[in-house]
Design a protein that fits this description.
The complex is a heterodimer. Chain A is an all-alpha fold. Chain A contains 22 helices and two strands. Chain A has one domain: Sodium/glucose cotransporter, CATH 1.20.1730.10. Chain B has one domain (3-78). The chains are: A mainly alpha, B mainly alpha.
Chain lengths: 578, 84
């Protein structure tokens, strides 16, 4: 069977499954629409969170990022998992105890302030929208590469699928499709990884394969990779290259940002009890860790395969650069997409792929897009067609599930926080359900539009979404639970100052509102304040938020009695014996 | 000191303990001490600092969350504040 047909079959089958679930899991009340009626089993919610969390970027880009950055990519591995510890211990159980529908709702109630609620809504929508545009683009790319449909067509199909299950089912529909999508994506990610690990090291588990010997050699895979890269003038794979302060703050910002992303937090509103919220965060991380501990192996092994293809160190062609005319078919396929580019600088008809430290040659691989590492991995390793088809379905599942979760967070904050909460408090449950469906439809259309015409901020997910979540939402939520004394004025000023300093720092180096050419200083380590990257600044913003909120609250009146009772109440799971 | 305050203090102690471990496995072993730990090899050819940064810290996070959940459930029962 041709690869094309196989891919259509596999992707089509997964779509049929998602639509089937959508029809089964329709939402009848706002409670079902916003939080799936609080009836999701903690383990299943863990799976749904896994799919919700792991986006097109985690599935497609992360292993490639690791492949090219080596040790320095650890910031993403630790940052995007360590945040779940903060979520489990500092936020999820208490917010579940509070038991309402959205994150801005808690902030508005706890700080008895509609301004606080609106600030939270704005942060939520900006962060989620930035994030969702990337998913829409991912869906379009996956379709155009694997199904050879035009980008716009792929985007439209994706929008229709999300529309069916998210508008009909709300959180309930999204949850159960996410569970299915998790199964698809994790299968699609681990199967090629196991094949490649077996091929290179003879070890089944990629997590162990990464530490193992190469097949038929007494050299460890990581040593081989370090040696290959250093010989060709690249930096060693396992050694730190960036500044320690930047790596530290980058990791911390991603952790705090992860814990503060509303679409993830809301997932823990859907479990029946407080104790389920605690364990469900653990299950989420189990399901996420399966992919996140596989990714480093995929990255390292794919990099080694790529280097060995171009400059083999064993076999009949050992020590010779690959002739351009003899390049494998995957090479040609990816050249067509423009993600891979070769330029014969010395005119010898061979491909020289070298790092900056190499004095003998100029690098002729002028472009190696990191996304290729996962997408082309099965082809590079000569895996069967069904595996390639599976990777396509997995990438689409990862993008769809994250997009749906984000769109739901946006729609809920519009219909529940802005409309029902502030503009029309007397709306009936039925009216609100209708409003939330309309908000969902609107969000899908807006996201689709931006997917077609990506604005400048779309590429800045890490800086903008994580920066906002870390500097504004996380501190407001955490202090709302842990520091009874923080009041409305302190919280609002804290959020605004944390947000403000983070945004200014990002815009300073990346241009005001990401408009090219408006940056105040070049975006490189030499110009960064203390060598801190804009993406790593969220942690500093969070610190400013904490400090301002604490100090301002100290010199302004304490929160009213009923708010203090509210805080005491969310700190315990059950009823308190007085 | 009321039961409720005591429950909350026990919770805070537990959270701080867990977060200290959280900090050690990621920031200390995975970042600050990684260059030094890289001289030690584990699980075959993994340099230890590199292993903490790309594998070990993640496993530790999972264990920490379940440990926290388990201890909190015990605390809930001890102070009689569990859900029915």
């Amino acid at each position: 069977m041709s690869l094309q047909l196989m891919t259509y079959l596999v992707v089509g089958a997964t779509f049929a499954l998602y639509i089937f679930i959508a029809i089964k899991a329709r939402a009848a009340t706002t409670g079902e629409f916003y939080v799936a009626g609080k009836g999701v089993h903690p383990v299943l919610n863990g799976m749904a969170t896994g799919a919700d969390w792991m986006s097109a970027a985690s599935f497609i880009s992360m292993a490639g990022l690791i492949a090219f950055k080596g040790y320095d990519a650890s910031v993403f591995l630790m940052g995007w998992t360590g945040g779940y510890c903060l979520l489990a211990m500092l936020l999820a159980p208490y917010l579940r105890k509070y038991g309402k529908f959205t994150v801005p709702e808690f902030i508005g109630d706890r700080y008895y302030s509609n301004i606080a609620r609106v600030v939270a809504v704005i942060c939520l929508i900006t962060a989620s929208l930035t994030y969702v545009i990337g998913q829409m683009k991912g869906i379009g790319v996956a379709f155009s590469r694997f199904l050879e449909l035009p980008f716009e067509m792929g985007l439209l199909v994706g929008m229709i699928i999300v529309f069916i299950y998210a508008v009909l089912g709300g959180m309930k529909g999204v949850t159960y499709t996410q569970i299915a999508q998790y199964c698809v994506l994790i299968f699609a990610y681990t199967v090629p990884a196991i094949f490649i690990s077996l091929h290179l090291t003879g070890t089944v588990l990629p997590q162990l394969g990464l530490g193992a010997h190469m097949v038929g050699s007494d050299m460890f895979l990581l040593d081989k990779l370090d040696k290959t890269l250093v010989d060709l003038g690249f930096g060693a794979y396992t050694i730190q290259k960036g500044s320690t302060l930047n790596i530290f703050l980058y990791t911390l910002s991603l952790m705090i940002g992860t814990a503060g992303l509303p679409h993830v937090i809301t997932r823990f509103f859907t479990v029946p009890k407080v104790k389920d919220a605690r364990s469900s965060v653990g299950w989420s991380l189990v399901f996420i860790a399966i992919l996140y501990t596989t990714a480093p192996a995929v990255g390292a092994m794919a990099r080694l395969n790529l280097m060995e293809t171009i400059h083999p160190t064993t076999g009949p062609n050992a020590g010779q650069w690959l002739e351009y005319d003899k390049r494998p078919s995957w090479f040609k396929n990816w050249e067509k997409t423009g993600l891979l580019k070769f330029e014969d600088k010395n005119g010898d008809g061979r491909i020289q792929y070298v790092g900056k430290a190499n004095k003998e040659f100029k690098n002729e691989m002028v472009k190696v897009d990191r996304d290729i590492m996962v997408l082309a991995n099965p082809e590079i390793a000569n895996l069967p067609n069904w595996v390639i088809a599976l990777v396509a379905a997995g990438g689409i599942a990862a993008a769809l599930s994250t997009a749906a979760g984000l769109l739901l967070a946006i729609a809920s904050s519009i219909s529940h926080d802005l409309l029902k909460g502030i503009i029309a408090p007397n709306m009936s449950d039925k009216g609100e359900l209708l409003a939330s469906r309309i908000a969902m439809t609107g969000s899908i259309l807006v996201a689709g539009y931006f997917g077609l015409h990506p604005p400048g901020f779309a590429a800045q997910v890490v800086a903008l979404a994580f920066g906002l979540a870390a500097s504004s939402i996380f501190p407001a939520l955490m202090m709302g639970i842990f520091v009874k004394r923080v009041n409305n004025i302190g919280a609002v000023l804290g959020m605004l100052s944390g947000l403000g300093i983070t945004l200014v720092y990002i815009f300073w180096f990346k241009g005001w509102f990401f408009i090219p050419g408006t940056n105040m200083a070049p975006n490189n380590p030499a110009h960064w304040f203390l060598g801190i990257a804009p993406e790593a600044f969220g942690a500093v913003g969070a610190l400013v938020n904490f400090a301002v909120a604490y100090i301002v609250s100290g010199i302004t009146p304490a929160p009213p009695e009923h708010i203090q009772h509210l805080v005491e109440d969310i700190r315990v799971p059950g009823v308190v014996r007085r | 000191m009321s039961e409720k305050t005591e429950y909350w203090r026990a919770n805070i102690r537990l959270v701080i303990g867990c977060l200290v471990v959280w900090f050690i496995v990621s920031y200390v072993c995975g970042i600050f001490l990684a260059p030094a730990l890289n001289h030690i090899r584990i699980l075959g050819g993994y340099p230890l600092g590199f292993w903490f940064a790309q594998q070990g810290s993640i496993y530790a996070f999972v264990v920490l969350i379940f440990f926290y959940a388990w201890r909190m459930n015990q605390l809930d029962r001890k102070f009689g504040v569990q859900e029915d």
